[in-house]
C-alpha cells in the first residue's frame, strides 16, 4: 500500500509541475496586463516603467523561474490589478467557495443517492420514469438559467430569500441549489445504473433466498457493492465544485474563487491566475488521490490485484 | 460499509465543513432607512486613489476622499470647489488654488497646502524612492506644486493647459506623509477628508461606508452607503426590482419597462460622455485611404434606426464625436443622413463600384450592446456592397491589438471623454501619432489640435474645436454613430440624480 501511495504522490507532483508550465504559458498567450491597466493616452515612458516594475521585460524562462521558485514557497507575487499578495486574495475567497461547494455537495448526496436507489428498485415502473425524466431535465438545464429563475421567483416575486452576495446561511440556499444540480444528476444516474447492475447478482439472490430483510439486503449487499463507482464520481464532483463555480458565483454575486479567476484572466493578472490555478489543482489532485485511496479501502480487488471478490 | 454508515459519514463531514466555513455573522447589506446600497459589476481594485483608474473604484473612493474641485453635477462645463474655495489663473502656466481651512482627515491630520504638494509629488513620482503613480498619465502637463502659504498653492504646468481643472478633479487627496514608509499603506486602509469612512471591505462582496459626523461640508444625509459587487447584469436587474439595492448602472434598454413596472424603482437617464464610433484604418487599408469611401460609410449606416431599434431610443446620433454638451459642439454640423444611394455613388466615384471586404473588430462585453450595434452596422454596409466580417474578441485581445497597432481594417469603440472636452480624444485618436487608436493623419487637424490643446480662452478653444470638426466631418476617420445615454435603475425612495460623467456621488442624496 505505501508503495502505491508513494507512486501516486509522485505522479501528483509531476502533474502539478506540468501544470505550472501550462498555466504560465497560456496566461501569456494573448494580451498583457499593461495594455489593460493603462489607457491609450498613457505616455510610453509610463508603459515602459510598468513593464519593468512587473518584470515583464525579462525573458520568459527567467520569469518562469521567478514564478516557480516563489510558488514553491507559497509566494505567487503581487496581484497586478489589486496591489495585494495574490495568494492572500485567493485564500480570502477560498472559504466562500468551500462553503458553497460543501453545501451543494451535501444536497447532491442526500438527494442524489436516494433518487438513484429508488429508480433502481422501481426500474421500468412509473416512479423510475419520473425520476429518469427529471434527471435528464436537470442535466439539460443551464445553471445560469436556473439561477436567474430562482432569483426571479424565490427572491423577487416571493421575497423569501436574498438574491445576491454572501451574508449568512440564507444567502447560501439558492446558489447551493443551483450548483448542486449537475453533481446531483451525475450521482443519481450512476447510483441507479450501478445498482441495476448489482441487483440481479447471485449474491443478492442468495441473500434473498436466505430470507434476509429487504433493508439488510439493500444496506449490506446491494449498496455496499453498488456505491463503489459512486464514490469516484462524488470525488470528482467535489473537486469540480471546489475549483470554483464560475457561473453560479457570477449570477449570485458569490465572492468565491471562480469569479476571481475570471476577473483575473480578463485583466491578465498573471500572479492571481497562477495562484488560483495551482490552488485548485492541488485540491483536485488531492481529492483524486483520496478517491483512489478510498477505492483501495472499499474494494478488495484493488488491494489484492485480483479480478473477482473472494 | 452499509448505506446508513456511508450516508451518515458524508452528512457529518459536510456539516462539519459547513460549520467551519459559514460566514461569521456578516451584517445584512440590504437597503434600509439609513443605508443605501449601490450595485456595481466589479469590486474596487484598491483604496489608494492614486493607483486606480476604474470608474467603479472611483465611485467608492469619491465618498472617502475629496478632490480640490469637482465638476458641477448639473452643468458639466462648470466646477465647484471642494477642498479649494477659490481658484484663478495667475499666468499662462499657473493655476492658484485657495484652500479651505479647518479640514481634517479621518485620522485627525490637518489638510493644508503642504498636503496638496505631497499629493502631486507622489503622483508624479517626485517623492524619495517613489515611481509615478498609476494616475500619472493624466498629469502629463503638470510640472509641480508651489506652496504660496499655508492655505494657498500654485499648480504649475509645462504648457498652458486649459484642462487643468478637469485633471485636478481626478486627484483625490491623501494625507501628508501617509505613504512614506509603506507605499501600499492606503491600499486597504483609506484615510481621506471625504464625507464617509470605510467600515468594512469584504473583497468581491461589498464595501461598507459610514458617514462622518465632522465632515467639513456638513454631515451627509445618508448614514451608511454600501457598494455591493454583483457581476451579473440580470442579477443586478432582479435586485433593483426586488428593492434589495437602490442604484444600478447600465440598465439594458429593453429592460427599462421591467424596472418601472416593479413598483420599487424607476429608470433615470442622463446623456453620457461616451460616444460610439467605428474607427477606420485610413493609413494602411486601401479603400479607407479614400475620403469618399469613408464619407460613403457614414451615409450607408442608418444610425437613427440603430438608436431606435437596438438602443430602444436611448442614444443621440452625432455628426462627429462631439455631442452637444461638450466644449466646441458645432450645431451647424448635422449627423449624416441615411442615404444608401449616395453611398453607392461615392463608392463608385472612389473606384469601388462593387464594394470591398473589411473586418470590423469589436470587444465583447465592454460597451453596452456593442455586438448588436456592430451587427446592425455590418448589415447596412452589406447593402451598399461592403462585405463586413465581424471579429468579436475578448477585451484583453482588443487592448493588445490596439496597443500593438495590429488592428483589422476597422474597430468599434465607445470612447468616454469625462473632461467634456474632445481635446484629449483628438490627441489620442485623430492626431497623427503612434497610439493604437490613431489611424488617421491630417496636417490641418494636427496643427489645430495642438493649438486648441494650449488655448486657455474657452471661446477661442471652442472655435478651434469647431474648425477641426468641420475637417473631420468631410474627411471622416470614423463612422460616427451616437452618444450613449446612461440608464440608471434608482429605487423610488432615493432622491438622487445621475451625472453625465458616470460618477455615482451620494453626498447630496437623501432617502425618504
Q: Could you explain how this protein is built, in words?
A:
The complex is a heterodimer of chains A (310) and B (512). With 310 residues, chain A is an all-alpha fold. Chain A folds into 2 domains: 2-72, no CATH class; 94-303, MetI-like fold (Orthogonal Bundle), CATH 1.10.3720.10. Chain A contains 15 helices and no strands. Chain A has helices at residues 2-27, 33-37, 44-53, 60-72, 86-121, 126-140, 143-157, 170-198, 202-209, 214-226, 228-242, 246-251, 257-266, 270-298, 300-304. In chain A, helix 7 packs across helix 8 (170-198), helix 8 crosses helix 10 and helix 8 packs antiparallel against helix 11. The longest helix of chain A is centred in the middle third of the chain and has 36 residues, at 86-121. Chain A is flat and about 85 Å long. The mean pLDDT of chain A is 86. With 512 residues, chain B is α+β, with helices and mostly antiparallel strands. Chain B folds into 3 domains: 31-48 and 55-61 and 187-270 and 486-511, D-Maltodextrin-Binding Protein, domain 2, CATH 3.40.190.10; 69-169, Alpha-Beta Complex (Dipeptide-binding Protein, domain 1), CATH 3.90.76; 271-485, Dipeptide-binding Protein, Domain 3 (Dipeptide-binding Protein, domain 3). In chain B, 30% of the residues lie in helices and 23% in strands. Chain B has helices spanning 3-21, 55-64, 113-124, 164-169, 233-242, 256-261, 286-289, 291-300, 303-310, 340-349, 370-383, 395-403, 423-429, 443-453, 458-474, and strands at residues 35-40, 69-71, 79-81, 84-89, 94-99, 142-149, 152-157, 196-202, 206-211, 224-229, 247-248, 265-280, 315-317, 357-363, 387-393, 410-416, 478-491, 494-495, 510-511. In chain B, strands 1, 8, 9, 10, 11, 12, 13, 14, 15, 16 and 17 form an 11-stranded mixed β-sheet that branches. A 4-stranded antiparallel β-sheet of chain B has the order 4-5-7-6, with helices on one face. In chain B, strands 2-3 form a two-stranded antiparallel ribbon. In chain B, helix 8 (291-300) runs antiparallel to helix 10 (340-349), helix 13 (423-429) packs antiparallel against helix 14 (443-453) and helix 14 (443-453) packs antiparallel against helix 15 (458-474). The longest helix of chain B has 19 residues, at 3-21. Chain B starts with a helix and ends with a strand. The relative contact order of chain B is 0.14. Chains A and B meet through helix 2, helix 3, helix 5, helix 7 and helix 10 of A and helix 1, helix 5, helix 12 and helix 13 of B.
Amino acid at each position: 500500500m505505501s508503495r502505491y501511495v508513494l507512486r501516486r504522490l509522485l505522479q501528483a507532483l509531476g502533474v502539478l509541475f506540468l501544470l505550472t508550465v501550462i498555466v504560465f504559458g497560456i496566461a501569456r498567450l494573448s494580451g498583457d496586463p499593461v495594455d489593460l491597466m493603462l489607457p491609450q493616452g498613457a505616455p510610453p515612458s509610463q508603459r515602459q516603467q510598468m513593464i519593468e516594475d512587473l518584470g515583464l521585460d525579462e525573458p520568459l524562462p527567467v520569469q518562469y523561474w521567478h514564478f516557480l521558485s516563489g510558488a514553491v514557497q507559497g509566494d505567487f507575487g503581487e496581484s497586478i490589478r489589486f496591489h495585494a499578495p495574490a495568494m492572500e486574495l485567493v485564500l480570502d475567497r477560498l472559504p466562500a467557495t468551500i462553503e458553497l461547494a460543501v453545501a451543494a455537495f451535501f444536497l447532491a448526496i442526500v438527494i442524489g443517492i436516494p433518487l438513484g436507489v429508488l429508480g433502481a428498485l422501481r426500474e421500468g415502473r412509473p416512479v423510475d420514469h419520473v425520476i429518469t425524466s427529471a434527471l435528464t431535465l436537470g442535466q439539460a438545464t443551464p445553471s445560469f438559467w436556473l439561477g436567474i429563475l430562482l432569483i426571479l421567483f424565490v427572491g423577487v416575486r416571493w421575497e423569501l430569500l436574498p438574491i445576491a452576495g454572501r451574508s449568512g446561511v440564507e444567502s447560501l440556499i439558492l446558489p447551493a441549489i443551483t450548483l448542486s444540480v449537475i453533481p446531483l444528476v451525475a450521482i443519481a444516474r450512476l447510483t441507479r445504473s450501478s445498482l441495476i447492475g448489482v441487483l440481479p447478482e447471485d449474491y443478492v439472490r442468495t441473500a434473498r433466498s436466505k430470507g434476509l430483510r429487504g433493508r439488510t439486503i439493500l444496506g449490506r449487499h446491494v449498496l455496499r457493492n453498488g456505491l463503489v463507482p459512486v464514490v469516484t464520481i462524488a470525488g470528482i464532483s467535489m473537486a469540480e465544485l471546489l475549483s470554483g463555480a464560475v457561473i453560479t458565483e457570477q449570477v449570485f454575486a458569490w465572492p468565491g474563487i471562480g469569479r476571481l479567476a475570471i476577473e483575473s484572466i480578463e485583466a491578465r493578472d498573471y500572479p492571481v491566475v497562477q495562484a488560483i490555478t495551482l490552488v485548485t489543482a492541488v485540491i483536485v489532485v488531492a481529492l483524486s488521490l483520496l478517491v483512489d485511496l478510498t477505492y483501495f479501502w472499499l474494494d478488495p480487488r484493488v488491494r489484492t490485484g485480483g479480478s473477482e471478490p473472494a | 460499509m452499509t448505506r446508513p454508515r456511508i450516508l451518515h459519514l458524508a452528512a457529518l463531514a459536510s456539516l462539519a465543513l459547513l460549520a467551519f466555513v459559514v460566514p461569521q455573522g456578516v451584517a445584512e447589506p440590504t437597503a434600509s432607512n439609513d443605508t443605501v446600497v449601490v450595485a456595481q459589476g466589479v469590486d474596487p481594485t484598491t483604496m489608494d486613489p492614486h493607483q486606480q483608474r476604474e470608474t467603479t473604484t472611483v465611485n467608492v473612493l469619491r465618498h472617502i476622499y475629496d478632490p480640490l474641485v469637482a465638476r458641477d453635477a448639473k452643468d458639466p462645463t462648470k466646477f465647484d470647489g471642494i477642498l479649494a474655495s477659490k481658484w484663478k489663473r495667475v499666468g499662462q502656466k499657473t493655476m492658484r488654488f485657495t484652500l479651505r481651512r479647518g479640514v481634517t482627515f479621518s485620522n485627525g491630520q490637518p489638510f493644508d497646502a503642504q498636503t496638496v504638494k505631497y499629493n502631486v509629488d507622489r503622483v508624479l513620482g517626485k517623492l524619495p524612492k517613489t515611481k509615478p503613480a498609476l494616475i500619472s498619465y493624466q498629469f502629463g502637463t503638470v510640472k509641480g506644486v508651489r506652496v504660496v502659504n499655508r492655505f494657498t498653492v500654485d499648480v504649475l504646468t509645462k504648457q498652458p493647459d486649459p484642462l487643468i481643472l478637469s485633471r485636478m478633479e481626478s486627484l483625490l487627496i491623501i494625507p501628508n506623509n501617509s505613504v512614506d514608509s509603506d507605499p501600499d499603506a492606503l491600499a486597504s486602509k483609506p484615510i481621506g477628508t471625504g464625507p464617509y469612512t470605510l467600515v468594512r471591505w469584504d473583497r468581491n462582496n461589498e464595501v461598507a461606508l459610514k458617514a462622518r459626523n465632522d465632515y467639513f461640508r456638513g454631515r451627509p444625509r445618508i448614514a451608511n452607503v454600501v457598494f455591493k459587487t454583483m457581476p451579473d447584469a440580470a442579477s443586478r436587474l432582479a435586485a433593483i426590482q426586488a428593492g434589495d439595492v437602490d442604484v444600478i448602472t447600465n440598465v439594458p434598454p429593453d429592460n427599462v419597462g421591467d424596472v418601472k413596472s416593479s413598483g420599487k424603482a424607476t429608470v433615470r437617464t442622463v446623456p453620457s460622455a461616451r460616444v460610439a464610433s467605428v474607427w477606420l484604418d485610413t493609413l494602411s487599408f486601401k479603400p479607407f485611404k479614400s475620403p469618399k469611401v469613408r464619407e460613403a460609410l457614414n451615409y450607408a449606416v442608418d444610425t437613427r434606426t440603430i438608436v431606435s431599434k437596438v438602443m430602444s431610443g436611448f442614444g443621440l446620433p452625432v455628426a462627429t464625436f462631439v455631442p452637444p454638451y461638450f466644449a466646441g459642439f458645432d450645431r451647424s454640423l448635422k449627423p449624416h443622413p441615411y442615404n444608401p444611394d449616395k453611398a453607392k455613388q461615392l463608392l463608385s466615384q472612389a473606384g469601388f463600384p462593387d464594394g470591398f471586404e473589411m473586418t470590423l473588430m469589436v470587444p465583447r462585453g465592454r460597451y453596452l450592446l456593442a455586438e448588436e450595434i456592430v451587427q446592425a452596422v455590418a448589415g447596412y454596409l452589406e447593402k451598399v456592397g461592403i462585405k463586413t466580417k465581424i471579429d468579436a474578441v475578448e477585451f484583453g485581445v482588443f487592448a493588445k491589438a490596439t496597443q500593438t497597432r495590429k488592428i483589422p481594417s476597422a474597430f468599434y469603440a465607445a470612447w468616454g471623454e469625462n473632461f467634456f472636452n474632445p481635446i484629449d480624444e483628438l490627441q489620442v485618436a485623430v492626431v497623427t501619432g503612434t497610439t493604437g487608436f490613431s489611424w488617421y493623419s491630417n496636417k490641418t487637424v494636427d496643427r489645430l489640435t495642438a493649438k486648441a490643446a494650449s488655448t486657455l480662452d474657452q471661446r477661442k478653444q471652442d472655435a478651434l474645436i469647431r474648425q477641426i470638426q468641420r475637417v473631420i466631418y468631410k474627411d471622416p476617420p470614423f463612422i460616427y454613430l451616437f452618444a450613449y445615454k446612461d440608464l440608471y435603475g434608482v429605487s423610488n425612495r432615493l432622491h438622487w440624480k445621475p451625472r453625465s460623467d458616470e460618477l455615482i456621488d451620494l453626498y447630496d442624496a437623501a432617502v425618504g
